[in-house]
Amino acid sequence: MPHVQPADQKTGDIAALLLAHYDVHARDLPWRNRPGEGLPAPYHVWLSEIMLQQTTVAAVGPYSRKFTERWPDFSALAAADEADVMAAWAGLGYYARARNLIKCARAVAVGHGGQLPATEAGLLTLPGIGPYTAAAIAAIAFDQRAVVVDANVERVVSRLFAISIPLPAAKPIIREAADAITPGIRAGDFAQAMMDLGAGICSVKAPSCMLCPLQSHCDAFGLGNPEAYPVKAAKKAKPTRRGTAYWVEREGEVYLVTRQDKGMLGGMRSLPDDGWNSRTNGDGKAPFTASWQHLDNIVQHEFTHFTLSLRIAVTALGSDANPPGGGMWWPVKSLDKAGLPTLFTKVAKAVLASGER
DNA sequence: GAAGCGTGGGA
DNA sequence: TTCCCAAGCTT
Questions:
Q1: Contact A272, A257 (CB under 8 A)
Q2: Per-residue pLDDT tens for A294-325?
Q3: At what angle do helices A42-52 and A57-70 cross, to 10 degrees?
Q4: Rounded distance in angstroms from the CA atom of residue A205 to the C1' atom of nucleotide B11
Q5: Catalytic choice (A37, A49, A82, A227)
Q6: What are phi and psi for residue A204, nearest 5 degrees?
């Protein structure tokens, strides 16, 4: 049975109170239009929503500006060199998003006449757009009523209705409750207001209930334990994996490879490695025979689901030497433009500081 | 349904 | 330090 009543006094009040609060306190974000400017461009909404997946507003800001300046619309992004896009995304993480970003831009340019579909169902067919993003774009860019549920909304809703079933089992109930409080007009503003509320007042820890426009409607506040929601299942322990990265230098240039599209850091330029991944240690075998010098310091890097403890091996080659494989030589002085994932940026920094070269 | 997939910041 | 988490999607 549903935990939440159909549209009643409480659910109707919530939208009105939240929208009134939003009209005064909405955050001014680069991808948002100011009041009175109408709906933001679908391209800008889409780009920001993809970047914001599992990523903080602060981290997205510079990337959003960089991308919209360099690729101002779908056709520009669809025509971009893939390596340029991947390099521009470097450091933002979850690189499958960048691969899907290119696929999606090309699908829009080729299959949809350069226009993003204006419906949730249409948006869901595109690469990198799932249930949350489809609803968010439909509401924010196309002013359609859509039930937008992200981690902020899950937190706010689970507190409003004191939902004690743990996530992820509670997702259907939370969605039902979010549907019940979503208004028929201003769905985009409502969605963004919920997310602003979750990002600020209704925070994970120590929520500012005294500032909350929904305080009087919040069951968790009434119970005195808002921080207890949402209830979550216990997490698994994070393993540590070991591996090696190889720094091969020849006349001021370092040898880089492009990783295969699937898996960790897929599609990104990287240093050669010994095959480490989230499940296994690297085999410690160098890509070719040379007089490798192992650095003393180990690079520790935290991924979401494992810790990597990485050794670094360094060698220098003569001018005529060539390692096997289809990599590329990259000038060390402009390594910052290679678009390396943060892990390998750390490795490069360690090598350059070591003097072993 | 669960696992895989980055990174940086806050407490 | 250590843990948790962020405007999730794909397989």
A1: yes
A2: 999 899 999 989 999 999 999 999 877 777 77
A3: 140
A4: 8
A5: A49
A6: -60, -50
Answer for A309: CB within 7 Å of strand B: no
Nearest protein residue by Cα to C1' of nucleotide B8: A59
A110 CA to C4 C1' in angstroms comes to: 42
Give the model's pLDDT for residue A323. Answer: 78
Mean pLDDT over each residue of chain A, to the nearest integer: 93
pLDDT at A3 over 50: no
pLDDT at A5 over 70: no
Q: What is the CATH number of domain A240-354?
A: 3.90.79.10
A334 band by pLDDT with thresholds 50, 70 and 90: very high
Q: What is the CATH number of domain A9-148+164-201?
A: 1.10.340.30
DSSP 8-state class, residue A182: -
Closest nt to residue A191, judged CA to C1': C7
Return the number of other C-beta atoms located less than 10 Å from residue A23's C-beta: 12
Nearest-CA neighbor of A64 among A87, A83, A85, A47?
Answer: A47
Q: What is the nearest nucleotide to A198, using C1' and CA?
A: C7
User: Cis omega (within 30 of 0) on the bond before A166?
Assistant: no
Distance CA A98, CA A87 (A): 10
In chain A, domain spans: 9-148+164-201, 240-354
Q: Which residue is nearest to nucleotide B5 (CA to C1')?
A: A94
Residue A105 (CA) to nucleotide C3 (C1'), in angstroms, measures 37
Residue type, A106: R
Token pair recorded at residue A261? 């599209």
| Model pLDDT, residue A54 | 96
Per cent of chain A over pLDDT 70 is 97
- Cβ atoms < 10 Å from Cβ of A141: 21
Tokens representing residue A76 in the block: 């520009």
- Tell me which residues from 222 to 241 on chain A have a beta carbon below 7 angstroms from nucleic acid strand B: 236
What are A258's two structure tokens? 């492009």
Q: Could you say which nucleotides of strand C lie within 7 A of any protein CB atom?
A: 4-10
A251 is catalytic: no
Cα-only R_g, chain A: 24
Residue A166, token pair as written in the block: 């743990």
